[in-house]
Write a structure and sequence with these properties.
Strands 2-3-4-1-5 form a five-stranded parallel beta sheet, with helices on both faces. The protein is an alpha/beta fold and 355 residues long. 55% of the residues lie in helices and 7% in strands. It is globular. Its EC number is 2.7.7.7.
Length: 355
């Protein structure tokens, strides 16, 4: 796991010019350095696969570059070269140990912060997946952020700020990262995976702006997976409560990546909603996935169904019990498919969709 993480780190170690997307975030971080208003802690938030790690690496380079320019780090000096190779002693990375970032990891970090940076102007602590801090680790990190050591900059990365302690968020300069442009993802896929332009565009549309999700769709026949997931949803309509619980138990054991299953459903619902609102959407997607799952639900009901799936995905990201999360979602979806609940309106939920 650590080898895979190190490989991914090397792939995204770059200057601002090479970081895909995120124009506003890059301009903001460049201004911080140019104006000398560097915060002691940054919080980069957004979905996986949109370049948060690359942005953090580029900012760490710029802070310690020996020949910086308005565009960012030079990528040639001794400092940049060491950061590129993962050898700079003042760039510390904290990643999950298993499913969580644990108290011992934060304690080890605190010990290393007792000393001044050995080479760079700043020691940069890059803490990935901050939403996976265990409670005691969060409290220990908060104490560090409350009295940050001089010449240390913390870069936290998380999916959503709500997944962190509010007191941690309040001590960080929050930078919201945006989904990547679908056209850029399509070009990247065509060049990297040597697939046709049409297939690349289709997968880019499925990605929701995430390069990780795009790669997930490329690496196997995910359309077949989408069909299987939607068949499960369709069966919920006529299911009893016991049937729902039985289906949830089976699903939780069979699927290796329930979050991606939820993304499959969200994408398909998004396409159906787009058709209902604008008459747009990809007809081939509908040819590949049975429409029986949602029948003739209204736009409002589809939006509520989308929210139910999003809530389930959120619970799974927070390491909720997989079976319990699916049981709750299954009962909610069953009611919606049978027209028993339609409390949400387009004005309330429409803005939450990634159109």
């Amino acid at each position: 796991m650590r080898e895979a993480h190190e490989r991914k780190r090397r792939e995204c170690s770059m200057s601002f010019e090479s970081v895909p997307g995120q124009p506003r975030a890059k301009r903001f971080l460049q201004r911080l350095v140019m104006n000398g208003t560097i915060p002691h802690a940054l919080l980069l938030t957004g979905m996986k696969g949109i370049g948060k790690r690359a942005l953090a690496e580029a900012f760490a380079k710029l802070l310690n570059c020996l020949a910086p320019s308005p565009a960012g780090a030079c990528d040639r000096c001794a400092s940049c070269t060491k950061i590129e190779k993962g050898l700079h002693p003042d760039i510390l990375r904290v990643v999950r140990d298993g499913a969580f970032i644990k108290l011992d990891q934060v304690r080890d970090l605190r010990e290393r912060l007792r000393f001044m940076p050995s080479e760079g102007r700043f020691r940069v602590v890059v803490l990935e997946d901050a939403q996976d801090l265990k409670e005691e680790a969060s409290n220990a990190l908060l104490k560090i952020l409350e009295e940050p050591p001089a010449q240390n900059v913390f870069i936290l990365m998380a999916l959503e700020p709500q997944m962190l302690l509010p007191t941690i968020v309040s001590r960080c300069c929050h930078v919201r990262c945006q989904p990547l442009d679908e056209d850029w993802i399509a070009r990247h896929l065509a060049a990297t995976y040597r697939i046709g332009d049409d297939q690349a565009r289709k997968i880019a549309r499925l990605s929701f702006g995430s390069l990780d999700r795009a790669a997930w769709w490329v690496e196997a026949d995910r359309m077949d997976r989408l069909r299987q997931v939607l068949e499960r949803i369709a069966r919920l309509k006529a299911a009893s409560v016991l049937d729902v619980f039985s289906m949830a138990a089976a699903w939780s054991k069979e699927s290796e990546d329930l979050e991606q299953d939820m993304e499959c459903i969200k994408f398909w619902l998004r396409e159906k909603i787009m058709v209902g609102l604008e008459g747009s959407g990809d007809p081939e997607i509908f040819a590949a996935a049975s429409a029986e799952a949602t029948g003739r639900l209204s736009i409002e009901a589809l939006l509520e169904l989308y929210q139910a799936i999003e809530e389930t995905a959120r619970r799974l990201r927070q390491h909720a019990n997989r079976q319990l999360a699916l049981e709750g979602a299954g009962l909610k979806i069953r009611d919606l498919l049978n027209g028993k609940s339609c409390r949400y309106t387009l004005s309330k939920w429409g803005q939450s969709l990634s159109f």
